[in-house]
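Summary for the steering committee. The consortium agreed at its last meeting that each partner would contribute one worked example illustrating the joint modelling workflow. Our contribution is presented below. We chose a case with several input lines so that the handling of multiple components could be demonstrated. No manual editing was applied between input and output; the record is shown as generated.
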Amino acid sequence: MGVGPHASKKMIDTVVIPLLKIAIVLNATLVGVTYMVLLERKVIAWAQSRLGPMRVGPWGILQPVADAVKLMLKEDITPTRADKWVFTAAPIISMVPALIVYAVIPFGGDAPGEVAHIFGRDVPLYITRINVGLLYIVSVASVGVYGIILAGYSSNSKYPLLASLRASAQLISYEVAVTLTLVSVILVAGSLDMVSIVERQRDRHIWFFFLQPLAFVIVLIGGLAETNRAPFDLPEAEQELTGGFHTEYSGMRFALFFLAEYANMIVVSSVVTTLFFGGWLPPLPTWLPFLAYVPGWIWFFLKSFVFLYIFIWIRATLPRYRYDQLMRLGWKVLIPLAIANLVVTGIVKVMLL
Amino acid sequence: MGEAVAFYTISAFILIFAVLVISTKDTVHSVLFLVLDFLFVAALYVLLDAQFLAAIQVLVYAGGIVVLYLFVVMLVNLKRPPEAYEDPHRRTKLGFGLAAAVLFELGVIGLYSYASPASALAANPTIPVTGNTEEVGWLLYTSYLIPFEIASMLLLVAMIGAIILAKREL
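What follows is the complete predicted structure of the assembly.
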């Protein structure tokens, strides 16, 4: 039974190319995550006048490999009275949502200059394009909370449980503010589709940051809180909780939590880039037209990198919030601001545009 | 064919997890099975081409409401032996009676819809927008405006009621 040329073409379109894209994006993410850890250690070291990791490879650039080998070779301990199934599932539950979000993040568009050429056909640089892209990201991220709650619960230990309760209260509170703010961005863009949000920014010749600066600030703060990054890293406050919700984890399972946190950081920077800073679009197309010769995905990575750097910079700079301060900021400052922003955006959109 | 296979697989999973929700001893586990159940219901929505509804299902039910369930379950001490839950006022007969009534109703509905199947919903030509989210929004704010407003009023009333119950000295 031979496969006709038509069938094999269809096979390439529906199976080979998507799988190839998924493999590339997943591997790039995981490598990026490991190097994020190194970058974080290096940047914090420089902020504190140290050198950071220097031993493994020149300037320590092979440190992630050493870390990975160490974590894989370590003994994987399950506490005796832990809830075994949930204890095993929790790291997976926090890792999977962090990775499947990349399905809708556009690294490039549909336009002729923005696509890649594989097997003699134009391939856009996103895995899939769905009508509810942004909503998909928000909902998948909301499932990621379970990883932390269950890790704390199943460890059968006091500190992880306290940390996970803290974490889930924090995540739920800031999710409200972030989601409300995203609604005002959606109002401006008129679409939930990540690709068309960027296309609107191209067609209107303005990045949405300049239309929604307050929304950008709220999403950035909320993003820090949702990824449990400093100054909102209460779930892993070492001084109070001996380590946080992953105290009882060791080896590769601990590494999964770590990877999930950094993967979420990359997700937040990618989403901020897409929503507010024009995704793959080059800056100032009218004044600096030659910048269009740089491929779109390089612009996307550059912009995301800026936000990743800001995340690390904030961690090196700001002290941790106290828990009541965190809650006050979330409920009494960010949510009212988000609602006000939404109302003003709606009025302006109806009256002026 | 493929759709039917997907539908029956997803439905089987939904039923299995629904049974596990009520048959598991550990309360946290049963809440987790509820999450899985909701995720498979979302998959069913995707199969029906209702991506917006699927995303909302995951966001609101799997990601929001069940997290609160889990919170309550973890905060309330439920690690007592099952004998501690013996209810002296348990009305077994009444329960069976109600269950029989519901089953009977379901059977009548099933029989009725089997006898006179609903005509396939014609594509509404009056909707001037395209796209899943836009269509849902359009229908909610035109044909179904009053039910939508009543539902939101109900939610508001429930919220105010909860606040008043929690803070009696207000």
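The two ends of chain B are 60 Å apart (CA to CA). Chain B has two domains: 1-81, 128-170.
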